[in-house]
Design brief:
Two copies of one chain form a homodimer.
Chain A (H helix, E strand, L loop, with lengths): L11 E6 L14 H4 L3 H7 L2 E7 L9 H8 L11 H8 L9 E10 L5 E3 L7 H14 L6 E6 L4 E7 L7 E2 L14 E2 L4 H20 L8 E9 L6 H5 L3 E4 L3 H9 L3 E2 L5 H11 L6 E6 L1 H7 L3 H12 L2 H6 L4 E5 L16 E6 L12 H5 L4 E4 L3 H8 L9
Parallel strand pairs in A: 1-12, 1-13, 2-15, 10-11, 10-12
Antiparallel strand pairs in A: 2-14, 3-4, 3-6, 3-9, 5-6, 7-8, 13-14
Helix pairs in contact in A: 4-8, 10-11
Chain lengths: 397, 397
């Protein structure tokens, strides 16, 4: 891709409805997308290439990290975004290339030093924030800066910033009560892992002292150590000046990992589309992320998910008025209301450009299954968009 | 494949319509293949496996080299055919395993030694041939034989034949006027690259002396250094005695790279099919290449491309009369008249054998998209043909 990509005036939009893919739910027998009244997407589908994208592997339900990495063209098995990194992105922390991040749970140790509650009685978020402040004020580790950022209730994120760190570390959280916390251990024998191990254990030790009188939250458990995945940027790979419009910190963070510029989004779905329009002249690639489809799917709310799709559908004419050279509408994974969770199913994918082979009159899981793109790895989405926007040189003579 | 392939009496035909894949062009909404009146191919499709083959990667438009290598079962990203090699094949030069080939442009140097015209005023082909003769008569390089072969106008091919050469060389052509030609430089630090660099620079130096008084063509620029890709032959991999019928030197050359025997083709498309019939008893694999589909696509001539398909269609009954055990009809890439160029789109693929799962009544991009083979890498075509011809042993017990 690096060798073939060329800078041109053409413009690309990647519109992601989080968790778009669905499943039939009785009695209609239709999926959320099939049941939604979406005349604009249907009309677009009739002029588009359709397919089902597979985020990671057969049967595998992806998290948001791998789901988006694949859509952005990165192999989600090669580029791993640790949970600590996702959490740091999720709280809006600007993660640096050398930062080591981990998730923190405030937890309860009994007098014998064993864990009696892995969630410290689900302390309220305000209490969690106070404890985080105590840690930030008092933790002092040799040679690194330490940042602790509250998430929600008993959850927080810890970030160590310094040279020569590694995320080859095993969790301190034994995942069960009645056991002592594990010492953090290195999972390889590099000096970086050894140093990071020492830092993590020193952090826990200092936290135990600082939190000593804070029953029930008198210790921290660390898990999901992760470092910045060091993705090559969209500019490096595709020569694209990419911008992202997303309302949730985690998706903003994922876009930042790919080197996209974050645009300040307006209010709600309509506001996000307005932001795209206002910035149309300033970039040649736009990633627009719509979250509520996924939230409705997670809630098992079939009708609300369909309504969100209808709300997006109403924005499609305005998007087309901009005249994008290639436009993809898809999801990062399926979140069927039937399952109330992310799932492994193929994700409806629509690609509109002047160079398509339309096969159906509507946008839905089943028309996509019969589309000209068939089932294909989500990792190929960027190649397709680049090809359709005529931004790739020929390979070979 | 090497381990599974067995010699049998069954026979395979791979019929390649260059640039077969197309796109709908208003007002019919049909592609070239869909619009063509091809009753024989349609009838064959109704007894065949259908699919869309992908030559290289999503969104990537392949050149003829990678497109054919993939159809012949070679990974087109692993086996790279340099431009110099393709040019040598294109002029009918029988490239040896140790030959180093490069493209030559006759160009114009001004008094200060800078390039004033990279194409030497587009000298006529006769003049180019004269200059090539001067080079062939007068260039004398240490330890290698040198061949210069005219292409067209200001273009030629240079081949160095000798032991210990390498194509890890960067072009001397700076791709812009107003600059001095670059000295050829090695791109790795092998002794072969060093030696080849010295040879290439000595060649340019001698050419400059020989051409000194030949304004405007008073120098040569070298680019696209390439060596024989060293493909394992069809006999080695598949135990096939393969023959090729092609009317253009480049495709003959690609077939030779795979170890196919070149059959002397008759006149035009009909003549090519006649050649196949005449040689039916002498080989067990036939690659038949039809060029004019691609040429029509490149010209943006939708109707002519459809007519070429019709011309091929008329030859299908004769082909079937031979009783091939497995017959594939496909292209090396798409060349939609809409785009007037090679494109990245899936290529219609039809495989006829007694062991197929028919899904449609006609041969077209959309019936292929819905076919039992789905979208698949072109690199798998040879495996499919070998399987359908019952030439592969079972894998594992």
């Amino acid at each position: 891709m690096r060798e073939l990509s060329v800078k041109t005036d053409s413009k690309i939009i990647l519109l992601v409805l989080d968790g778009l893919g669905g499943l039939p739910l009785a009695p209609s027998g239709q999926t959320e997308l099939e049941a939604a009244s979406s005349p604009n997407l249907d009309s677009l589908a009739a002029r588009s290439d359709l397919g089902l994208s597979r985020p990671v592997a057969a049967g595998v339900s992806p998290g948001s990290g791998p789901g988006h990495l694949a859509l952005f063209g990165y192999n989600p098995l090669r580029y791993v975004v640790g949970r600590g990194v996702l959490s740091a992105l999720g709280v809006g922390f600007e993660l640096g290339q050398n930062d080591l991040a981990a998730r923190l749970n405030f937890a309860t140790l009994d007098e014998s030093g064993k864990i009696s509650d892995r969630r410290a009685g689900r302390i309220p978020s305000e209490k969690g924030a106070q404890l985080v402040e105590m840690l930030n004020e008092n933790v002092d580790l040799d040679g690194v800066e330490t940042f602790v950022i509250p998430e929600k209730e008993y959850r927080a994120v810890a970030v160590f910033r310094g040279e020569g760190l590694s995320d080859s570390l095993a969790d301190s959280d034994p995942q069960r009560v009645g056991l002592e916390p594990l010492p953090v251990k290195p999972t390889d024998d590099s000096p970086e892992a050894e140093r990071s191990t020492a830092l993590a254990n020193a952090f826990v030790e200092q936290a135990n002292k600082i939190l000593h009188d804070q029953h029930p939250a008198n210790t921290v458990l660390m898990r999901g150590f992760g470092m910045h995945p060091g993705l090559p940027s969209f500019e490096e790979i595709y020569e694209l000046d990419a911008a992202a419009i997303a309302s949730y910190p985690m998706y903003k963070g994922l876009a930042r990992l790919a080197g996209m510029e974050l645009l300040k989004e307006g209010e709600g779905i309509v506001g996000e589309f307005e932001t795209l329009k206002e910035n149309w002249d300033r970039h040649d690639f736009f990633f627009l992320h719509v979250k509520p489809t996924d939230a409705a799917g997670e809630d098992g709310d079939f009708d609300r998910k369909a309504e969100v799709i209808e709300e997006v559908d109403a924005q499609v004419p305005g998007l087309l008025d901009l005249g994008p050279d290639a436009l993809a509408v898809t999801g990062d994974h399926a979140t069927p209301a039937l399952l109330k969770s992310h799932s492994w199913h193929g994700v409806p994918f629509l690609l509109s450009s002047p160079y398509t082979l339309p096969t159906a009159e509507s946008f839905g899981e089943r028309t996509c299954a019969g589309g000209s793109l068939g089932e294909f790895p989500a990792e190929e989405v960027m190649g397709l968009l680049m090809g359709h926007a005529l931004k790739l040189n020929r390979y070979g003579a």
